[in-house]
Structures are given as structure tokens and as C-alpha cells.
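Narrative of activities, Objective 1.

The group set out to show that a structural description can be obtained from nothing but a protein's sequence at a throughput compatible with the screening campaign. Below is one input-output pair from the validation batch, recorded exactly as produced.
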Amino acid sequence: MSASAAQKVDPAHATLWARHYPGHDMIGTRTFGFWLYMLTDAMVYAALFATLGVLSHVVNLAGGPSPSAFINPVYAYGETITLFLSVLIYGYSMVALKNGNRGGVIGSMFVAMLLGVIYLVIAGIDIGNMFAHGVTPQVSGFLSIFFTVIIYHALHILVGVVWMLVMMVQIAREGFSANVVYRLINLRLFWHFQAVIWVFVFTFVYLQGMVA
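Output recorded for this entry:
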């Protein structure tokens, strides 16, 4: 055995781990907390989609219209395009944040917010047309969960739009403070999450309903 291998190590003086843990920074801690919120929101969506799957059976139509009779694919495609464009534009605002460009962040976020408003307008017109033709939640169990899913998602989009408006005001007043930055990061997570959820809404609510 070599002398180096036989040499004993004194644990009291060996650097095996950090003796003074610095702790998490505020942005990391609050972002982790927001991830936990999104996990709970994902569980709510999972329950809604499971209920939709059960109530999509023909028995639960209760004599009411089937999805293929009232779903308009034009509105669904319009919502898809506007929401995905909004997520893309918001991504540009994060690039501007990395470069410290206040005007770029506000400008990109303003466009993303307008696209979110357009999404809400399209969704409102779609739901209004359904109600005008007697397609309401009171007709059947299926329509109850159908409107619950799309309105619940639309409410999230509304929250995101209002959040963007608030953040633009805060950026203009405070600049890129720690509080502003972590809120922008959480808003990015929230907005991307809505796009991911929309993929499921479009697939299981609209697309599956059109081909049923």
C-alpha cells in the first residue's frame, strides 16, 4: 500500500460538505412555491378531464345535442393560434429581461396581453353562439362539464391578462427589482402552463367532440 493511500484523513479538517449552508435565494424559493401551486392546478384539471371522459358517454347527453352538432372548429383554431402566439411573444419579453431591456419587456408583454384579450373575445363569441342556440349547461351532464372546462381555462387566461397589465405598471415604476423579476418568472410559468393545458382542451374537448 502506498504512503498516500495509507494516510489517514482527519474528518474535523476535511472539506466534505459545505459547513455553512447559504440557503435559497428569494426568487428560487418563491418560484418553487409557484410550481407547487401549478401542481395543484394540474390536479384540478386532471379531475375535470376525467369527469369529461365519463360524461362524454351518449347516455349523459340526456337527449341534448352531441358535441359534433355545436362545436365550431374555426373558433377553436383561432383560440389556438392566438394563445400560442401570445406565449411565443411573451418568450421574447423574457429575452429582453435577460438583456435588461425595460422597453422590450413592456412592449413584448403588451403584445402578448393583446393576444390574450383576442383569445378571450373569440372564446366569448363561441360560448355566446352556443347559448344563443340553446346549448347551455342545464341541458345535460355532458354540457355541464363541457362549459366548466372551457370557462375554467378562460378564467385562467383572464388572470394572466390582468397579471401582465399589473406587471407592465410595476416594471415602469420599479424597474427590474427582485420582486418584479420573480413575478415575471412565475408569470412565464403560468402562461406556458395555460398553453399546455389548451393542448388537452383542444384535443379532448374540441377535436374529439368534432369527430365523435
